[in-house]
Design a protein that fits this description.
This protein is of the alpha+beta class. It is built from nine helices and 14 strands. The chain is globular. The protein binds adenosine-3'-5'-diphosphate and magnesium ion (3 copies). It is an enzyme of class 3 (hydrolase).
Length: 326
């Protein structure tokens, strides 16, 4: 099967990164470090990026990674304690880890988009991670502008949202043309997911960010209502929203920009893995004007605004409702 080795490397490294995140959370070391743009990062984001970049470098030495984080902050002397902590957690999974190597692995994620590259969000939903809510470790392979593989680890997401107290911890895997699967992190139990072809009565609701700055909630809700959704939207952090639509637990994920942030552009690592999981599960993804998402132009999707992700059967109605309001 095409992309088999890439898939195995991605799955193994995302599982290790997920374990690192869970461990850091359990050890109560998940604290916000402020980045220059004032957004938070934690030792878990940096450790997860180190593990995954190391695994890609070992298996595919030529491959470029376009990742969210870099080691600039961590190289400063006042961060030596955090660097030591990260190195210790990474060493649990990668025996040859040292502080210098960890810094270099993290910085392997500073590549540029090209013909073939990976894009990595070591923790998507860092704010969710800090709150103890949902987050995702997201890795995707892009070739010739197309997402070919997506792996998304969601350590705190229930296997089934209808059983919120049930087992948690899921990995989503999709390969172009080969479908999407869900793997239970605890047991390895695997099942195909194809829940995004048609909406139904029980999932006729939308999902959106917990963080109100990340999406225009009033507009999102107006569109959901315009296509007939009356149920309360599901608030979920991270790319897990794509997975929830893929599983058929919601039918629509809208991420619409606020008029107050006209210059905000979405990052490729915030969407690539989620988008292929949803499409392979039968769903549709585009920007708010119906344009395909551009994953290989830049790390920021300069030519796209907003996101529509939905089950296939309601996509046209959502797009039409949106064009009426904007
Ligand atoms: N003003 C904004 N509009 C849209 N997305 C934003 C934003 N500010 C930050 N984000 C992105 O929102 C992501 C989290 O998404 P969500 O709201 O769906 O949980 C963040 O990813 P990180 O947590 O990886 O930094 C960040 O890239
Ligand atoms: Mg971030
Ligand atoms: Mg993100
Ligand atoms: Mg992130």
């Amino acid at each position: 099967m095409p992309y088999e080795l890439e898939k195995q490397v991605a799955i193994a490294s995302v599982i290790q990164a997920a374990k690192l995140c869970v461990q850091i959370q359990q050890d109560r070391l998940a604290a916000a470090i402020e980045k220059p743009d004032f957004s938070p990062v934690t030792i878990a984001d940096l450790g997860a990026q180190a593990i995954i970049c190391q695994a890609i470098a070992a298996a595919f030495p030529q491959d470029v990674v376009v990742g969210e984080e870099d080691a600039k902050l961590l190289r400063q002397p006042q961060m030596s304690e955090q660097l030591e902590q990260i190195t210790a957690y990474v060493r649990i999974h990668v025996s040859e880890a040292s502080a210098d190597r960890v810094l270099d692995w993290i910085d392997r994620g500073n590549g540029k988009v090209g013909d073939r590259f990976w894009t990595l969000d070591p923790i998507d939903g860092t704010k969710g991670f800090l709150r103890g809510d949902r987050y995702a470790i997201a890795l995707a392979l892009i070739e010739n502008g197309e997402v070919k593989l997506g792996v998304m680890g969601c350590p705190t997401l229930p296997l089934d949202l209808n059983q919120p107290q049930g087992e948690r911890g899921v990995l989503f895997v999709a390969v172009k043309g080969q479908g999407a699967t869900q793997i239970a992190l605890k047991t390895g139990a695997t099942q195909p997911i194809l829940g995004a072809r048609t909406a139904n009565k029980s999932n006729f609701r939308s999902t959106e960010s917990v963080e109100s700055r990340h999406g225009n909630l009033p507009l999102q809700r107006a569109i959901a209502q315009a296509v007939g959704m009356t149920a309360e939207p599901l608030s979920i952090d991270s790319m897990a929203k794509y997975a929830v639509v893929a599983r058929g637990e919601a039918a629509l994920y809208l991420r619409l920009p606020w008029a107050e942030y006209p210059d905000y552009r979405e990052n490729i690592w915030d969407h690539a893995a989620g988008a292929i999981v949803l499409e392979e599960a039968g769903g549709r993804v585009s920007d708010m004007y119906g344009k395909p998402l551009e994953f290989a132009t830049n790390a920021k999707m300069l030519n796209n605004r907003g996101i529509i992700a939905s089950s296939s059967d309601i996509y046209d109605a959502v797009l039409a409702a949106l064009q009426e309001k904007v």
